[in-house]
Design goal:
The protein is α+β, with helices and mostly antiparallel strands. It has a single domain (10-152), classed as NADH Oxidase. The chain has helices at 6-9, 24-34, 54-63, 91-111, 125-135, and strands at residues 46-51, 75-82, 115-120, 141-150. Strands 1-2-4-3 form a four-stranded antiparallel sheet, with helices on both faces. It is globular. The mean pLDDT is 97. Bound molecules: flavin mononucleotide. Residues 12-13, 15, 66-67, 117-120 line the site of flavin mononucleotide.
């Protein structure tokens, strides 16, 4: 693993958090990183809901079968996309833009002494509906992903999942 890319290898899903709050300046930096992501035609259709309150974190965790641990995180971020602003009003572009923003935020977390985990929402209709009702999210805003954030409780080893079998020479697929 190339040491210059350590910022990539250090991004690991963190699901257990120390009881330390995330500061407002860290939140700002995470969101700046998210909004530095590429976006089709620079439409930036993303909207970020910042969840700091314990009761709300628990309510969101209850909607996410694989994200129960959000209830014990100090911070949650809900990444939504505005279909009206997405390039060509396309759901695919909206999802790609929001995924890029989510990944940027996840990559920024370790650099700020934080850990984070992507929480799957889209395309699970029941999760989307439950979140819409908690936050009264209008139809044009589509919940895409949740992110649990906090100071990691333990340490995860940096790694890559590089697999040479996934790499193809352009000639390989030519008939
Ligand atoms: C679209 C998507 C949805 C995910 N949803 C969840 C989730 O709901 N709960 C969870 O604990 N991890 C979730 N993850 C994180 C993956 O489980 C994790 O990235 C994968 O196991 C690789 O581990 P790493 O992130 O530590 O490299 C999700 C990742 C993606 C990209």
């Amino acid at each position: 693993m190339n040491a210059e890319l350590n910022f990539l290898w250090r991004r690991r899903s963190v699901r257990a958090f120390a009881g330390v709050p995330v500061s407002e300046s860290q939140i700002r930096s995470l969101l700046e990183a998210a909004m530095a992501a590429p976006s089709a035609c620079c439409r930036d259709p993303w909207e970020f809901l910042v969840i700091r309150e314990k009761g709300l974190l628990k309510a969101v965790a209850d909607c996410l079968p694989n994200g129960r641990f959000l209830a014990d995180a100090p911070l949650g971020i809900l990444v939504c996309g505005d279909i009206r602003r997405a390039h060509a009003e396309s759901l695919s572009y909206l999802l790609q833009d929001c995924a890029a923003a989510t990944e940027n935020l996840l990559l920024a977390a370790p650099a700020l002494g934080l850990g984070a985990c992507w929480l799957g929402i889209h395309p699970r209709e029941e999760r989307i509906a439950a979140l819409r009702s908690i936050f009264r999210i209008p139809e044009f805003l589509i919940p895409v992903a949740g992110i649990a954030v906090g100071v990691p409780e333990g340490k995860s080893a940096p790694r890559t999942r590089f697999d040479p079998a996934k790499v193809h020479d352009a000639g390989e697929w030519t008939l």
